[in-house]
Amino acid sequence: MFDKRTLTELGGWTGYRVADLEYRPGEGWTGRSKLLIRLEPRSKTMRCSRCGRKSRSVHDTTMRRIRDLPILDWDVVLLVPRRRLWCSHCGGPHLEALDWLSPHRRVTRRLEEAIGRLSRMMPLKQVAAFYGVGWHTVKAIDKALLQQEVLEPDWRGIEYLGMDEFALHKGHRYATVIVEPLRRQVLWVGEGRSREAIRPFFEGLDEAARRRIKAVVMDMNTAFDLEVQAYCPNAEVVYDLFHVVAKYGREVIDRVRVDEANRLCQDKRARKVIKSARWLLLRNRENLKTAEQTIRLDELLAANRALMTVYVLKEDLKCLWRYRHAGYAKRLWEGWYQRAMESGITPLMQFARRLKPYLQGILAHCRHPLHTSVLEGINNRIKVIKRMAYGFRDTEYFFLKIRAAFPGDLR
Fold first, then answer.
1. Alpha carbon separation from 325 to 71, 213, 320, 365, 368 (Å, rounded)
2. Residue 131 contacts by C-beta under 8 Å, 6 or more apart in sequence?
3. Coil, strand or helix: which one is 165?
4. Cα dist from 175 to 108, 143, 237, 303, 379, whole Å
5. Number of H helices and number of E strands within the chain?
6. Which homologous superfamily does the CATH classification assign to the domain defined by 161-237+374-405?
7. Cβ proximity of 408 and 149 under 8 Å
């Protein structure tokens, strides 16, 4: 099928030539056909893998089986006399440096690159099965390539940060992701969501980078808030609309809906209408899919004053993030807070009191119109990465995967 000269020219095994070939057809429907290629060195001169100096002194030679990229339907196995030279400059035996083979690897560089590319799109187990190599080999190759590809951020142009948490494992184990929201670049990922957990990120920044940060967008997480204030003296904390409205839905709308359903326990028909209206009340009006849903919502609000009140105040609260002048936004807040306290609805009044200490972070959105929609998109991608691999036991490898998926838009 192939001759030695052709394979030597096409193989790209610099410094070596094909000495012998052997074909081994696969057996059974799961068998893989193999092409064994025995290589021999072209010259006695070798290059030290540590210092790069040349030497002709062979310390010892060991035959190694090295996997290369498949040719047509044949798995390629190289039988390579792996030489160790005695380097007079380094003062010891070291492996011969080869352009096409990394030290101590049992696969060629081009197979490593192919495995790395495929590992971005497929689970490691399937990549291992595709190339007929071990799962741990695939993981080690991909991790090493990621460590080379994932570079430290250029902090000279970073003025804004976004911080959010995501579930790492079941059992309330979380990790924190910090991004540059304008360029969609993941800067850092670490286990935990406490002040101590995110402190290594800020301690790793120099003083100039800390002072350059103008604003940090986050949810209402006191741990994140305090750590930003401690390390970034010029940064303003910006609280995001999505998390505030989601919290309002859980603590106010859901609670009032349940209370109203319990109040109407004697009227089973009315109670059923209110109990089944959860997603109708939580969803934005513009996101209602049919005219029937819009009619149902209007009828429900017209029939129940408490639900009408909390629903209208939810829409008014969202208007705070539309202003670009802090004075106008503060005036809207004062009117909203007064209406909430005069409503007589206990969950709404409690929510307004708890939200009041976070007002400065909400008003900071007028000066820095940041939001965490980028973070939510990144979190969804993280879930896909985790689900595709059926979870990760090596968190360092997982975090490298996340950073590689979001290198940033540098245009």
1. 65, 21, 10, 9, 11
2. 67, 70, 111, 114, 115, 138
3. strand
4. 35, 20, 20, 44, 11
5. 18, 12
6. Ribonuclease H-like superfamily/Ribonuclease H (3.30.420.10)
7. no
Helix, strand and coil percent figures for the chain, each rounded to 5? 50, 20, 25
CA dihedral 244, 245, 250, 255 (to 10 degrees): 110
Q: How many CB atoms lie within 10 A of CB 380?
A: 10
Span 349-370, mean pLDDT? Answer: 93
User: What does DSSP say about strands 58-71 and 74-87: parallel, antiparallel, or unpaired?
Assistant: antiparallel
% residues pLDDT > 90 (the chain): 51
DSSP state of 107: B
Structure tokens at 408: 């940033």
User: What is the enclosing helix (H) or strand (E) of 296?
Assistant: helix 291-303
d(CA 137, CA 296): 58
**Higher pLDDT among residues 208 and 169, named by residue:** 208
- Which H helix or E strand runs over 66? strand 58-71
- Would you say the C-alpha torsion 384, 389, 391, 394 has a positive or negative sign? negative
Using the CB atoms, write b or e for 307-341: b if 16+ within 10 Å.
bebbbebbeebeebbebeeeeebbebbeebbeebe
pLDDT at 27 over 70: no
% of the chain surpassing 70 pLDDT: 97
Please, what is the Cα angle at 224 between 218 and 226, to 5 degrees? Answer: 125
Mean pLDDT for the stretch of residues 219-236: 89
pTM of the model: 0.81
